[in-house]
């Protein structure tokens, strides 16, 4: 498969023909904006990794579950809307052996799932979750494979080929710098599936030390109960915290 250009540097790149909405007032340095549409993930962390690896022209081994190295208490309170006192605390999760770190909601426990390096689920609603998959590859960096937009297009093409997918649409695509100048791609898309209904998915990916690191955050986002700005802010903090160690 031919490589595609050099990735764009700078803030997230919107798709042509799609107007961005202004970020919500309570968002902290958001990179993605809301949409009336929605996406899935108990299986999503493993499934999306498989989709992306299918697009990669190089072979990779199946991921394996690895133990936690440590979880350091950290960061972030988000005030509830309407003057409410609701708070959602985040803590730092670090896997030293696999070489990645991120923030995750303290109240979302880690669960075991074959093929997932780490998976955290909202208690009582496992379809809202955060997953990480790590796979060996022969790339030195993700830009060697293609631009953020190219990766997003390949991912969505693979999603649409699944029988369970009713519709899938990219909302925004971007790139940021991680530790030591590492290139991290970020993609937001909405998915309507017969397995889980309408959901919003945030994905971050990078390649380091000949490994593909893929983060997937899935949350319900139906017209009846759309993703609220408070939860969105927290999910974006998780998205932007994903990095190598």
From TrEMBL:
A cellular component term, taken from the record's GO annotations: extrinsic component of membrane
Location of the PsbP C-terminal domain: 90-243
Stretch list, region Disordered: 1-36
Source domain of life: Eukaryota
A molecular-function term among this protein's GO annotations: calcium ion binding
InterPro entries reported in the protein's UniProt record: Mog1/PsbP_a/b/a-sand (IPR016123), PsbP_C (IPR002683)
Protein name (database record): PsbP C-terminal domain-containing protein
Species classification: Eukaryota, Viridiplantae, Streptophyta, Embryophyta, Tracheophyta
């Amino acid at each position: 498969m031919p490589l595609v250009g050099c990735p764009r540097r700078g803030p997230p790149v919107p798709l042509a023909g799609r107007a961005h909405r202004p970020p919500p007032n309570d968002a902290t340095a958001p990179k993605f904006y809301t949409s009336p549409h929605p996406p899935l993930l108990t299986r999503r962390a493993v499934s999306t990794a498989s989709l992306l690896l299918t697009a990669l022209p190089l072979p990779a081994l199946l991921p394996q579950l690895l133990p936690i190295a440590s979880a350091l208490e950290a960061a972030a309170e988000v005030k509830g809307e309407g003057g409410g006192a609701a708070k959602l605390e985040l803590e730092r999760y670090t896997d030293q052996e696999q070489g990645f770190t991120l923030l995750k909601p303290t109240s979302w426990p880690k669960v075991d799932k074959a093929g997932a390096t780490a998976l955290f689920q909202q208690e009582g609603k496992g379809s809202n979750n955060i997953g990480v998959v790590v796979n060996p590859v022969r790339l030195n960096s993700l830009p060697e494979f293609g631009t953020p937009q190219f990766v997003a297009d390949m991912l969505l093409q693979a999603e649409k080929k699944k029988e369970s997918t009713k519709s899938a649409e990219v909302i925004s695509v971007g790139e940021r710098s991680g530790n030591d100048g590492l290139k991290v791609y970020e993609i937001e898309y909405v998915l309507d599936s017969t397995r889980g209904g309408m959901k919003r998915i945030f994905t971050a990916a990078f390649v380091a030390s000949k490994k593909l690191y893929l983060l997937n955050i899935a949350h319900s986002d139906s017209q009846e109960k759309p993703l609220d700005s408070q939860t969105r802010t927290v999910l974006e903090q998780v998205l932007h915290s994903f990095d190598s160690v």
